[in-house]
Amino acid sequence: MSSKRPQLVNDEFYHVVLRTVGDSVVFEKEDDFYRGIFSIYEFNNVNPVNIWLRRQQRKKEKAMEDLVKSDSVNLRGMTSQYSEQLDRRDKMVEILCFSFMPNHLHLLLRQLKDDGITHFMQKVGTGYARYFNQKYNRKGHLFSRFRAVHIKTDEQLKNTFTYIHTNLIALIEPGFKEKGLKNPKKVIEFLENSKRHSYLDYLNKKNFPSVTEREFLLNILGGPDGCREEVNNWVNHKKELKDFSNVFLE
After folding, report:
1. What's the distance, Cα to Cα, between the start and end of the chain in Å?
2. Between 187 and 51, where is the model more confident?
């Protein structure tokens, strides 16, 4: 596939991949992965982001989220109002899906503002590189130029949803794309418990629900049960059901 990016148009969907220079491993450690999640959430903002200030605000948000477990209806309402007040981001994109591999990141995005995807990916790449280089006493660029595929149809959206969320299989079955799956049951269990992608939130297993906008794909796929069926069917009948050539980016 050509590395030339398509024109990025508002309200259109794109499968985006951000890969490290030389395939360096940057998201393997838990702290680094969580910083990656923090980055795609916080840097989805037209306005400048003060990371230190946002970390302090997130601590307050987390304290309020913990109180949601209370049975008090009034408390739930107060928490909702509090979260709305804190989330004042002027978002550049909608993040529908994500998946973090050790050396790259997959995203399904809908562009909200002119050049929104480009600016968002620049902010994520630059911000995370600053963190990573400082932590590991490293210098220089961390990521290559991001790549994108324009997703034009519902069928492509479904394929992209499945592709992004099954990409993590390579962590437990290297070479599965060429060799096939040895243990589909183990793979399904792994996918439904890995925090490294947005799949859990689509199954109503709370993971990082504030990061993604899920309503659109949930409607297309038929809710959480439809999402699970889409992925499990591919895992159990990999070669027969899906052609990823129109969403593929590596």
Report:
1. 9
2. 187
Structure tokens at 228: 């699970």
| Sign of the CA dihedral with 237 first, then 239, 242, and 244 last | positive
d(CA 49, CA 52): 9
Spatial distance between the Cα atoms of 223 and 89, rounded to a whole number of angstroms: 27
Q: Which domains does the chain have, with CATH numbers?
A: 13-47+91-241 (3.30.70.1290), 52-86 (no CATH)
Alpha helices in the chain (DSSP H): 30-42, 51-67, 73-86, 116-135, 154-166, 176-179, 184-191, 199-202, 215-221, 223-236, 238-241
**Phi/psi of residue 110, nearest 5 degrees:** -115, 125
Residue 222: helix, strand or coil by DSSP?
Answer: coil
One-letter amino acid at 123 equals K
What pLDDT, in 10s, does the model give residues 64-79? 666 555 554 444 443 4
The predicted-structure confidence for 8-32, as pLDDT tens digits, reads as follows 999 999 999 999 999 999 999 999 9
Alpha carbon distance 195, 84 (integer Å)? 25
